[in-house]
Structures are given as structure tokens and as C-alpha cells.
Amino acid sequence: MLNEIEKLYAYLQFRQAGMDQDEAMQAIGDLEFLILMDQLKSILDEVQEEVTEESEASEIEDLLKEIFS
Questions:
Q1: Helix (H, G, I), strand (E, B), or coil: what is residue 24?
Q2: How many CA atoms lie within 13 A of 66 on its CB side?
Q3: Which key words are in the record (predicted)?
Q4: Torsion of CA 34, 39, 45, 51, to 10 degrees
Q5: In the chain, is it the N or the C terminus that has fewer CB atoms within a 10 Å radius of its CB?
Q6: What is the pLDDT of residue 69?
Q7: Alpha-carbon Rg of the chain, whole angstroms?
Q8: Proportion of the chain above pLDDT 70, given as a percent
Q9: Rounded to two decimals, what is the model's pTM?
Q10: Do 28 and 4 meet the contact criterion of CB atoms below 8 Å apart?
Q11: Residues 24 and 11: beta-carbon distance below 8 Å
């Protein structure tokens, strides 16, 4: 998420780019949404990595059990 200073800076940049007040505020909302989606993707990637690692570890355990049974 953007802090207040970042929001103000983004607002000023959008206004200087020719956006009106409503467009600038919408663009800030869109930017925050994209940031949240990127953070969510990173979290999901980490979870997928952990699930894959656990699955691989489980497969190795099963193979070892078969070998030593």
C-alpha cells in the first residue's frame, strides 16, 4: 500500500500529466490495487513453493519406506 506521502506525490504527478482530480484519484486507487495484487501473487508463489517442497519430501519419505520395508 502507498503511504500518504506517496499518494500525494502520485496525485501531483497524475495532475501534472493532465488528469483531472477524479481521474488522478482513480489512478491512485488502481495503482494501490496493482500493488496489492503483486503482493498477493508473491505470497501465492511462496505458498506454492512450500507445497511443492512438502510434496517432494513426502514422495521421498514414501520411497524410503518402500525401500526399507
A1: helix
A2: 6
A3: Plasmid
A4: -130
A5: C
A6: 81
A7: 23
A8: 100
A9: 0.70
A10: no
A11: yes
Q: How far apart are CA 67 and CA 61, in angstroms?
A: 10
Sign of the dihedral through C-alpha 30, 34, 40, 44: positive
CA triple 29-33-39, angle to 5 deg: 145
Q: Which residues contact 32 (CB under 8 A, 6 or more apart)?
A: 1, 2
Residues of the chain with pLDDT under 70: none
Residue carrying the nine cell digits 517432494: 56
The pLDDT tens digits for 38-55 are 999 999 999 999 999 888
Here the cell at position 53 is 517442497
The C-alpha cell that represents 22 in the structure block = 477524479
Amino acid at 8: L
